[in-house]
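Hello,

Our lab assistant flagged a job as stuck in the queue for most of the afternoon. It eventually completed. Since we weren't sure the result was trustworthy after the delay, we are filing this so someone can double-check. Below is the sequence as submitted and the structure that was eventually returned. Let us know if re-running is recommended.
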Amino acid sequence: MVPVSPELISPRSARVAAARRLAKRNFRGKDRLFLAEGPQAVREAAAHRDGGQATLVELFATVEAAERYADIVGEARAAGARVHLAAEDVIADISTTVTPQGLVGVCRFLDTPFEDVLAARPRLVAVLAHVRDPGNAGTVLRCADAAGADAVVLTDASVDLYNPKAVRASVGSLFHLPVAVGVPVEQAIERLKDAGVRILAADGAGDHDLDEELDEGTMGGPTAWVFGNEAWGLPEETRDLADAVVRVPIHGRAESLNLATAAAVCLYASARAQRARGGCRSVTQS
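-- returned structure --
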């Protein structure tokens, strides 16, 4: 068991400086480390393993947070993480939030090779194509986790998975399901099709209606939803690659749905169809 540091770590410590720089993408990529802030994210990080290796490698905690979340600190220690007690100003210096919660973890990268996603024969996948807003990316990941999706794919033109805002918005879901990154959207769609997965592009101007798809019973098989950029949606060349372009019906007077809300509706529609009697639970049953 790794002991908690008996003294507050200095703000001039090399460990603090190394953690602070992970707020920048180039340093995250170089070190293959990222920050997870708050009790929920740190708890999930402490529990996560990749090939037997613990994901959480270091934890900074205020004295108050270490007492309040003693169970999480204990889990971090049990995972082999080095735990540092830190003054509030040190945590504020490392944190990227306006109101830090007193716990900041340093974690190893945990993205999954796309080949491994395909090899697992996924039933439900969310593909983020050119999604640039980290809050949206993290929220879609959370929705995919809640809907029971098997994986999320971030294309090469999408936001960094380990952006602190994306990690926070996932509320721990980042540690729950495989996420592949840096895959060209054309390759992602082609390979998923080859694996027997139906490709549905979510677009407000789609010629297929989500309610009609559900009524017609076409959504029970393995499905990948492709979600586009927040501002301009999916380009025509990406829509053309899909098996169907599907719109979420607007029954009221709202102009549209934002990306995360539309993703939640679409993913839950597929999850319900796949779990219904006669729904397809695996590629081999398609």
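-- support follow-up --
The delay was a queue issue, not a problem with the job. The result is valid. Residues 281-286 have pLDDT under 50 and may be disordered. Residues 118 and 191 are 8 Å apart (CA to CA).
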